[in-house]
Write a structure and sequence with these properties.
This protein is an alpha+beta fold. It has 2 domains: 48 residues, no CATH class; 168 residues, no CATH class. The chain has 6 helices and 10 strands. The chain has a 4-stranded antiparallel beta sheet with strand order 8-9-5-10. Helix 3 packs antiparallel against helix 4 and helix 5 packs antiparallel against helix 6. The protein is extended. It starts with a strand and ends with a helix. 7% of the residues are buried. The N terminus is likely disordered.
């Protein structure tokens, strides 16, 4: 009995016989054995037409498309929030190290009453000096609002990491837990008109401080006392006011 055999479906080549032998491209070949299926082609009895499949799309294309889509989505979200009256800010949050992290509590009887006395394990002077220096640096890169210190648009925030390192070193020096007091920068979208009001109010506060320092400087000069320190503070306040007013102009554009 003769066996019917079809060409494998996976083959990318299609056998073509002369017109005298076949009138249909879909005709099945009756053969005695599978080996005879290709015998005529090897001997020149037919031709082979090979179709090359198109190459697959490069693998990175999907990743690139996904990245572009994410970037476009972020830009669209930014435009929408700006149209709704929001502005993006960077808020500096912090919990500073304190000399009270580690302390002993003693109970003593004085005048017939029990009195609680706290004994610090670390010298408070270095901690207090570090906090004063930190706030002095903070005034150069940010301004205070009701949600925290808002970084100026052109501020160099690398000093934040430096202060984290310095506070940790201070804590370790006195055997206190390190890494529990941090300084961080958090991005947030806030109503633009609210930010403008907050900055305007802060400028008014700093201007009042400037006028107070100017009055103190005049008083010191009148009494013939050294006014060098007051003069330095006045110059700092003047420069801070100039930068804050420039920040307000940028914000209102």
């Amino acid at each position: 009995m003769k066996e019917l055999v079809k060409l494998p479906a996976k083959s990318s080549c299609t056998a073509v016989r002369p017109e005298s032998e076949s009138e249909s491209e879909e005709a099945e070949l009756e053969i005695e054995s599978p080996e005879e299926a290709f015998a005529g082609f090897e001997e020149g009895g037919g031709a082979q037409l090979c179709a090359t499949a198109p190459p697959p799309a490069p693998a990175p294309a999907a990743a690139v498309a996904e990245k572009v889509t994410a970037e476009e989505a972020e830009r669209a979200a930014t435009r929408l929030l700006e149209q709704l009256g929001f502005t993006r800010v960077k808020v500096i949050t912090f919990t500073l190290p304190t000399e009270y992290i580690a302390q002993d509590v003693e109970l003593k009887r004085e005048n017939g009453q029990v009195v609680e006395r706290r004994v610090l394990k670390a010298d408070p002077a270095p901690f207090r000096a570090a906090r004063r220096a930190f706030y002095a640096a903070l005034h150069k890169i940010a301004w205070r609002s009701e949600v925290g210190w808002v970084a100026k648009s052109d501020a160099d925030l690398s000093v934040v990491d430096e202060w984290v390192r310095r506070f940790d070193e201070l804590a370790r020096k006195y055997g206190l837990p390190a890494g529990e007091r941090t300084v961080e920068v958090v991005e947030a979208w806030l109503p633009k008109d609210w930010v403008v009001r907050q900055l305007t109010n802060y400028i008014a506060e700093r201007r009042a401080a400037y006028e107070k320092m100017a009055a103190k400087l005049a008083e010191l000069k009148e009494k013939g006392k050294s006014a060098r320190r007051a003069l330095r503070e006045l110059e700092k306040l003047r420069e801070e006011l100039r930068e804050l007013e420039e920040e307000l102009r940028r914000l209102m554009r």
